[in-house]
Amino acid sequence: MDFSLWGGGSMGSVVGEKITRLIEYATNNFLPLILVCASGGARMQEGSLSLMQMAKISSTLYDYQSNKKLFYVSILTSPTTGGVTASFGMLGDIIIAEPNAYIAFAGKRIIEKTLNKTIPEGSQVAEYLFHKGLFDPIVPRNPLKGVLSELVQLHGFFPLNQNSIK
């Protein structure tokens, strides 16, 4: 999900495999899971292999959350779009967004072309989506470590000090 690379932070099969392995590691070691999402969508150059990452990650998260009853926090940064939004971005037990983050499944232009309607300006920004109930709190980066530390402790995991969260 590195925007400095070709593909604009898109989720391809390598990203999907790495995230799946991370979730499996957290599951096997009974660890809380915090994923920071930033993506321009799926890597269309990989076709269906890229799209399958949504199902692969989601099913691994199902085992983590439903079968093992472990705690997952999703943090949505700007932008979080496409397959990341459609899968693990919105599956957190707690979903946190950054202020003014652009969060969408598809871009404004694609939606308007598909629906043949104009969508309201700002309808894909965190504050608007928060008021529609799409996620939990909006938290700026500065207090985020403290908020995450409290959430993890509230959910029965080991006490964290803020320096242990990178």
From TrEMBL:
InterPro entries assigned: AcCoA_carboxyl_beta (IPR034733), Acetyl_CoA_COase_Trfase_b_su (IPR000438), ClpP/crotonase-like_dom_sf (IPR029045), COA_CT_N (IPR011762)
Protein name: CoA carboxyltransferase N-terminal domain-containing protein
GO cellular component terms attached to this protein's record: acetyl-CoA carboxylase complex; chloroplast
Phylogenetic classification of the source organism: Eukaryota, Viridiplantae, Streptophyta, Embryophyta, Tracheophyta
Keyword Zinc (UniProt): yes
GO-annotated biological processes: fatty acid biosynthetic process; malonyl-CoA biosynthetic process
Record carries keyword Nucleotide-binding: yes
GO terms assigned for molecular function: acetyl-CoA carboxylase activity; ATP binding; transferase activity; zinc ion binding
Known partners and oligomeric status: Acetyl-CoA carboxylase is a heterohexamer composed of biotin carboxyl carrier protein, biotin carboxylase and 2 subunits each of ACCase subunit alpha and ACCase plastid-coded subunit beta (accD).
Keyword annotations of the record: ATP-binding, Metal-binding, Nucleotide-binding, Transferase, Zinc, Zinc-finger
Stretches assigned to the CoA carboxyltransferase N-terminal domain: 1-166
